[in-house]
Amino acid sequence: MKTSGFTFVRNGLRLGYPFVASIRSLLPLCDEIIVNVPRSTDDTLKAVREIGDPKIRIIESDWDEKEKIGDPVMRRHTDLPLEQCTGDWCVYIQADEVLHEDSIPAMKAAMERELANPEVQGLLVDYTHFYGSFWTEIYSFGWYYKEIRVVRRAPNIRASGGAQGFRTTDGQKLRVKNSGGRYFHYGFALEPGQARVKLSNLNELYGNEKARETTAQTPARFYDDDQKVKPFKGTHPATMRDIVAAATWTYQSRNPLIRFKRNYFWEDVALIIKRCTGITLGVHKNYRLIK
What we know:
This protein has 9 helices and 13 strands. The protein is globular, with a radius of gyration of 19 Å. Helix 6 (192-205) runs antiparallel to helix 7. It is of the alpha/beta class. 29% of the residues lie in helices and 23% in strands. Strands 1, 2, 3, 4, 5, 6, 8, 11 and 13 form a 9-stranded mixed beta sheet that branches. It has a two-stranded antiparallel ribbon with strand order 7-12.
């Protein structure tokens, strides 16, 4: 069995993404890692090169500053390295995600176990999402706690939904099983000033100029004070520990039971129902889980 990793990152240094830690976290799992670095305005390409591992192969691609439609851009730059993969399985990781090394044996075992089963088109990983700091994790609805990050190498499997997940080229959800892998998502744990830069960049990419202006006017603390978070009691991936140790910012939330905001109201109600009855409502799954 051969395993390929793939990712893309542009202006990762300017945006504060832990992309070096992200790429390094795949090295023990993968036989090769294809990294697409679209034309950047910082030293992202240099930083990827300086990882210096022979498993890594870099693709340099163009970037159209005038293109403001985010989802197609993200899909296209994700598919570029996927198309260069030569493994039986292709493991995707985004620039703000890091694989925890403790889950690598389970992922390897799952890929080996399902290799000869063509019914399985992909594998899910579990997620821990951080919000506001490296020591506060989200537990509310509205966040994905499983997503496809391992796909079988096939010409009809490509990125979908702004590279949030993967589907067939005719739009069908993939048939998947759990891998036992765990990804840590740090995109909402950045230093508040850095988080502001990142969100402004995303708003620009998606052509949302009004949201970009609103982001620039947010308070210095940046993060909302009503997110549902709990203290993180686990260990961070080894490749992230120096970054985490150097962090100086913290986050506290009021943790209200109901936030009485239109964007969150039904998520809060669904969470209360789940706590009281165990029934999960309204969670969208971008895949078909099979046994």
